[in-house]
């Protein structure tokens, strides 16, 4: 149980960094001949983002944006059209 908590806190701190516009390390990928992508470095960061966007954990352990602790990512159906910058393209099998 403790290890899972630590993992969620680390995921949360990554999300906090992104919300604060703090640069995160580059994610490296290679493209195969069949046009599939292999993640060379950054799989844990992509996993954290996907789990956050899928509402799989609540933010916890945030230090700067502590008012967001306990919150999840949610988009209200009526607001999806206005959030175009969050559109992801690609097939991520994480």
Description of the molecule:
With 94 residues, the protein is of the alpha+beta class. The chain has one domain. The protein is built from 2 helices and 2 strands, in the order αββα. The chain has a two-stranded antiparallel sheet. A hairpin with a 5-residue loop joins strand 1 and strand 2. The longest helix has 18 residues, at 2-19. It starts with a helix and ends in a 41-residue tail after the last helix. Residues 79-94 have low confidence and may be disordered.
Observed structural traits:
94 residues, alpha+beta, two-stranded antiparallel sheet, 2 helices, elongated
Write the layout of secondary structure elements.
Blueprint: H1 2-19, E1 28-31, E2 37-41, H2 43-53
Antiparallel strand pairs: 1-2
Count of helical stretches: 2
| Share of helical residues | 25-40%
Largest sheet: 2 strands, antiparallel
The N- to C-terminal Cα distance equals 22 Å
**SS-based structural class?**
alpha+beta
From the alpha carbons, calculate the radius of gyration and give it in angstroms. 15 Å
| Uncertain stretches | 79-94
Quick overview:
By secondary structure, the protein is α+β, with helices and mostly antiparallel strands. The protein has helices at 2-19, 43-53; strands spanning 28-31, 37-41.
């Amino acid at each position: 149980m403790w290890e899972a908590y630590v993992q969620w806190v680390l995921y949360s701190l990554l999300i906090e960094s992104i919300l604060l516009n703090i640069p995160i390390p580059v994610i490296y990928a290679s493209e195969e001949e069949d046009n599939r992508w292999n993640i060379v470095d950054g799989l844990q960061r992509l996993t954290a983002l996907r789990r956050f966007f899928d509402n799989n954990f609540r933010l916890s352990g945030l230090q700067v944006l502590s008012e967001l602790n306990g919150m999840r990512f949610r988009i209200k159906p009526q607001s999806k059209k206005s959030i175009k910058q969050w559109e992801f393209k690609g097939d991520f099998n994480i």
